[in-house]
Amino acid sequence: MRRKTGVLAAVGVAVTLTAAACSSGSSSSNGGNNNSNTNAVAFNAGVTGTVNASSQKGGTITFDNSSAPDSTDAGNTYYAFNLNFTRLYATPLVTYKASTGAGGDQLVPGLATALGTASDGNKTWTYHIKSGVVFEDGTPVTSQDVKYAVERTFDRSVLPNGPTYFTSLLAGNAATYPGPFKNRAKNLMGLTAITTPNPTTIVFHLKQPFASFNYVVAFPQTAPVPPAKDKGTNYQLHPLSTGPYMFQSYQLNKQYTLVPNPKWNPSWDPQVKQLPSKIVVNLNVNANDIDNRLLAGDIQVDQAGTGVQAAARAKILSNPSLKANADNPVTGFMYFFYINTKVAPLNNIHCRMAIEYAANKTDLQTAYGGPIAGNIASTAMPPTVKGYSKFDLYNALSKPGGDIAAAKQQLQQCGQPNGFNLNVAYRSDRPREVSSSQALQESLASVGIKVTLKGYTSANYYGTFAGVPNYVHSHDLGMAAGGWGPDWPDAYGWGWALYDGASIAPAGNTNIAELNDPAVNSLFLQLEAASSDSAQNSIAAQIDKKVMQDAVILPGVYYKSLLYRPTDVTNVYVQTYYGMYDFATLGLKS
Amino acid sequence: MISFIIRRLIAAVFLLIIVSMVVFGIFFILPRWGGQTTYGLATEYVGRNPTRSAVLQMIDQLGLNKPLYLQYWAYLKAIVVGGHYGTGVNSAYCPPPCFGYSFKNQQPVWPAMVSDIPVTLSLAIGAAIIWLIAGIGIGVVSALKRGSIFDRFSMTIALAGVSLPIFFTGLIALELFSYKWPIFPNVQFVPFTENPALWARNLVLPWVTLAFLYAALYARLTRAGMLETMGEDYIRTARAKGLPERTVIFKHGLRAALTPIITIFGMDLGLLLGGALLTEYTFSLHGLGLFTIEAVQNQDFPEIMGVVMLAAFFVVIANLVVDIVYAVADPRVRY
Amino acid sequence: MAVPIDVASGPGGPAPEEALSVSDKAIEGRSLSQIAWRRLRRDKVAMAGGIIIIILILIAIFGPYLVANPNTYHSELIDPTFSRPKGPWGGISLDHPFGVEPVTGRDMLARIVVGARYSLLIGFLATALAVIIGTVMGVIAGYFGGWIDSVIARLMDIFLAFPLLVFAIALVGVLPGSAFGLSGSNLRVVLLIFIIGFFAWPYMGRIIRGQTLSLREREFVDAARSLGARGPYILFRELLPNMVGPILVYATLLIPTNILFEAALDFLGVGIIPPTPSWGYMLSDAVTQGYYAVDPMYMIIPGLAIFITIMAFNLFGDGLRDAFDPKSR
Q1: For the complex shown, is ipTM > 0.85?
Q2: Checking DSSP bridges between strand C178-179 and strand A38-39, what pairing results, if any?
């Protein structure tokens, strides 16, 4: 499923969520503890190492967010910033290493003693839970609590937001299991695909081999939840903590406060720290306000984690002392346009290729924010995905202003020499999409393709409009603006939901291009059946090439964000997978 | 007198019911005009990423397939009696007055609105006091000193005030007095009960921005009204009788000039209580205005309906109060 | 025959001889409109406002044909790192007298001119709608009185009870992207005209009703009635012409309110759809995206445009009101 992007509270503010960041930084591996690379304060210091390393405790860290998490319940969230943040109070079985660079994409044990042991050809995965783990109220954590945590996510009417990998991968009665909320007596612990032979062992039985299963388990959906204390949709008001912090108070959509969890033991998750004596999160704050408060030192972190707006960007880049406190990491996120394969005349591949050639990639890049916002993209997967190979089928890099001649040639071939009419959908409350759609409209006009822009609110974009194939067909939405971050850093985690024919859904569709290429589908199957890393990488490259040949995506940029770290925050670094600062290591200098 | 009040009260209740019917009807009929299906409508009520069965369940639960008048009746009933939403562990009880349950935010609409009311109240009433004093004061002085430098100057400023969009002035105020010169840094709402001094200080900029617009308007209105009444014969009579000038101005002149202003004030305050959208948006104050904007952003129908009803309620109440004040103050009004 | 104005004693009114001849056609009095026009002409400030309005209307009608394409990108004029125009003052040059937009490099002059068209179009049409409905309803209510008056008055109460901004946002949010055969920007424009006009009519309605109430007791109405005139004749030939003054005045004062209202809707993102230019949207862009910090002209120019337009209407409306009402000076 796609990595959901943030919903905006204030009009006109883009909050985009990112996943893996990749920069060639050194990674350390000393027993899963933090990145040992410490850097002095300088521009991009947080991208290659930790700034202000310190073990000083105390102080209050304030997070501001221009919107709100989809849910504070770790089993009901999909936003990247929240996957990052929930580790403060919900520890999954496995987690990502606290490191910059390639190390940050590696999985390390969380509540589990080790990464899962695969058996039966990658169809069965076994995890052992560390001993002595308890909830914040002292109740011991058992494997049944982990099973329940996964089970409860099956009821999408109660917990609709999280990823759906468990529902699609697990064997047994997973396809029909209704979740433990309805008919609780019968359905509690009723998911047959997960077995718990003893209180510290949990076994997952899959329908088909899945080499990347550890990545699925890294989602916070595996953070334990005690069945007796579950409150369904209201559990988010005070989830029981297994992490260094626990909830003190929560005013829905306004503010929540965390305080240190006295029962926590650092050995349960060596990647996180328990330094501040209080964490406050303010929700639905005006985005420009956030930037100004950040620069003034009134708050410490922007929880959305996608970087500053234009005004702050200008201030930071033109002031050397401010610039030294900024980082410009690659986020692992891409902006692009989906090109539908069913809406005429785009069902003819040459018409789609014409669009690929004609678009003015530089204008698109400027619309997204210029070179600071990332390099022009030419592939269907970003460089942060394992197996990425660089190629440029449509001269995006060699002729970034657009290749009008080649576009016209393609138009001839598809039988529309004078261009055609095209509807482009976008989210009207995402300024980047507003700008980029208009840029696209202008550049396609030069080859006679007349674009009509159709704006929708992001709240419904995937659920009711662009993500509903019937709507797309009946309204001739040939293209749709989009952004994407991978669920995990390999080609499956990036591309399955976007390009595999099996992922097309009647609502909430992520394969908006409706690509159903048997070659691509079979490559994905091979990917998960592959036994070695090099085999996986080569298949990933093939998927990328084939998707670009099918011309179903007009790549925009490999997105980079501009982040700001106030000088009093300690242990700041850009975690590769989340593509933003690691929220679980921060402390405060007094 | 009492019967007058009772009659107006009944009229107000009647008005509210009609407004609620219209709002309800519009939110259910209009989308259908635009081609929305019941299924599509139901997806507006379910949380994000709805599955087909969740949507169908919602249609059942909300009775979206039932005829309109039944749905409206259910809505009214919920306001008085409360409603149940969801099942089992996940059931939510929405206590009366229940203006619906927001599935997107997973909370009943009423408590969410109520928690925002203090912000809007603080903003509206504070600004109202400022603009009444400033606007009427300046208007009176301008009228009395007609043609003077003060008059010309203040009327020019007033004209500018009504010609500038409030989001423009608000932003300039923020940029200058909060970011550039940190006289009012970190403008965030602090409840009065928590820290009255900080509450007031953080509201100064929004108050002044909002009040500037209205003060300009009221200054112009007051001046025009004063000029009109001061030219009346009975003023000359009062002066001829030897009454002190101050009595003439305030007891006779201003009192008469204020009549239309009271009407407008009631209207303005009523509207503001429904949410000073632009001001709240510019200053990030979480009042009913921002609540409305977010509800529309999220296409959260229960919340949109709830806040529209609440806003209409304030307007009707404000008009009712104005009518009663009129009846008391102005002997010409027959009741 | 039109009635001479109610003259209070004092300079500025018509000479006493004119006021006396009501029915004597030999000495024809000046009509109300003529008198008002003379006074208006003497009010320099109001005339300035009026001239500005005329200029704006001309710009709105003819301007778009004279300026460059408001949608053409000029990325070469933008500094990509900061997304702002390269030159100072927002990139003002001979080619681009008002500079260019950040990010896109679109010509600001063109966008302001085309934006003027939409702002004025919506402002005028919405006001026209409100005036038409309001006048009709107000006159009927005032003239016939009785239960008709009560019904219409209650109707006005209902409409006034709706919180306009809240309701407009909600409505625009609820309606889908295409309906009634229109779509995109055109649909929005029609929608905005209807919403604004539909909810503003009670303001006009109340005023007209008040005017009708006071006018219907006058002698000239009795006179007409005694001559055998019936309802509709009296309404349209006697009452309405005498209300042209107030109608005009309040219409002129309603237009800026509606323009501001439309700008507010654009600002909140529920107005005109891009890439169609609109002043409110440009302001909103400048404010919420923070472009005002890197390119202040992007905020100042649309802000000034709105300001000057509103100011002009207010000045002219004030002058108009002064001209029609001899008591206020």
Answers
A1: no
A2: unpaired
